[in-house]
Amino acid sequence: MAVERNRRLLQDLLENPGNQACADCGAPDRDWASYTLGIFICLNCSGIHRNIPQVSKVKSVRLDAWEDDEVKFMASNGNSATKAKYESKLPAFYYRPTFTDCQVLREQWIRAKYERKEFVCIEKQEPYSAGYREGFLWKRGRDNGQFLSRKFILSEREGVLKYFNKHDAKDPKAVLRLEQINATFQPTKIGNPNGLQITYLKDNSTRNIFVYHEDGKEIVDWFNAIRAARFHYLQVAFPGASDADLVPKLTRNYGKEGYMEKTGPKDAFARGEVFIGSKENSYSVLDGLPPSTQGNHWQYGITIVTPDRKFLFACETESERRIWMEAFQKVIDRAMLPQEYAVEAHFKHKP
Questions:
Q1: Which tens digit of pLDDT belongs to each residue from 74-96?
Q2: How far apart are CA 335 and CA 271, in angstroms?
Q3: Alpha-helical segments (H) within 38-125
Q4: Phi/psi zone of residue 287: left (φ > 0), alpha (ψ -120 to 50 degrees), beta?
Q5: What does the alpha-carbon distance between residue 43 and residue 121 come to, in Å, rounded to a whole number?
Q6: Which of 118, 159, 306, 347 is the most core-located residue (most Cβ within 10 A)?
Q7: Could you count the other beta carbons within 10 Å of the beta carbon of residue 200?
Q8: Phi/psi zone of residue 272: left (φ > 0), alpha (ψ -120 to 50 degrees), beta?
């Protein structure tokens, strides 16, 4: 009877407003709980908690037997109260993963909160908040795809991320401006669970470098150091903007990535990319291709309309076309940022 009573009490606690999502990733399912931290979590996060047993011990809410004092502890804590405790000094720039993010981001978020207590003790945030970071990452070579150790330096004062082809080199191989940089985890594309794709503009064309580090904390610290440096740059560039306005601009995940056929008229010069602005600036996306289109093998067409011309693409399946259309529409529905007008102007004047 005590087992059933405790199970009902736990079910009641799950219905509390503060407990209606996983405490760590926001997933709607929270069938597990850390009875040493007092939080309800999802299955995926419970696996990470099991790897830090010195901090967190987990049980199934529905399947395991619970002691009276364990249920009382859960009732006196809960997700909201524990979050307020362990995230009390969370920096605005720090990336808070969701259940859709990759394993390394979610694991390091949980370890940072409960094992290292980085968001309780500000001095523990030094690796990514200092404004300067130097170290070695494995970088994929441009020609043969082999990963080689390269020295990277992030300098908020200089507003750059630099990397060097040789450990003792005085001059960097590339200098990436902070205002033009993006970073996103791409473990599948890079072939490493800690794979990070860094995107930047060179001559207003998009370039990518692919890096990883064997240590999950190290690569996530680099990621958040880039976000911190960009956050401080944007605070200076947009002095009246709130944190809520700036945080979405720090880094972005890609709305959609995959393959389409490029069809229709052939350019004299390879474009390599298409600038997509907002509907207010006469950009739109249309289902299908003009009747006279030739050269496409795939049948499911998309037409991107820009102020100057149309770009024609074809997808292999109808479902792929629908997903691409939705991704394009999200971009078109969004107002353009001030810096995007300069990029748009460059595209218009490309040869």
A1: 999 999 999 999 999 999 999 99
A2: 24
A3: 43-50, 68-76, 78-86, 103-110
A4: beta
A5: 28
A6: 118
A7: 20
A8: left
pLDDT at 155: 96
DSSP letter assigned to residue 113: I
Mapping DSSP to helix (H, G, I), strand (E, B) and coil, where does residue 97 land?
coil
Around Cβ 187, how many Cβ atoms within 10 Å?
17
Rg, C-alpha atoms of the chain: 24
Instruction: Provide the angle, in degrees to the nearest 10, between the axes of the packed helices 103-110 and 43-50.
Output: 60
Largest CA distance in the chain: 79
Q: Determine the Cα–Cα distance for residues 8 and 25; give it in Å rounded to an integer.
A: 25
Contact criterion met (CB below 8 Å) for 13 and 30 = no
Cα of first residue to Cα of last residue in the chain, in angstroms, is 79
Number of other residues whose CB lies within 10 A of the CB of residue 24: 30
Identify the CA nearest to 137 among candidates 150, 127, 155, 128: 150
Stated length of the chain: 351
Of 78, 229, 91, 254, residue with least CA distance to 152: 229
Dump pLDDT digits (tens) for 237-286.
Answer: 889 899 999 998 899 887 777 888 887 665 544 457 888 889 998 999 99
**Strand residues in the chain grouped as ranges (E):** 32-34, 39-41, 58-60, 132-140, 147-155, 160-164, 174-177, 182-185, 196-202, 205-212, 261-263, 284-287, 300-305, 310-315
Pairing of strands 196-202, 205-212: antiparallel
**110 contacts 134 by C-beta, under 8 angstroms:** no
282: left (phi over 0), alpha (psi -120 to 50) or beta: left
| Single-letter amino acid code for the residue at 233 | Y
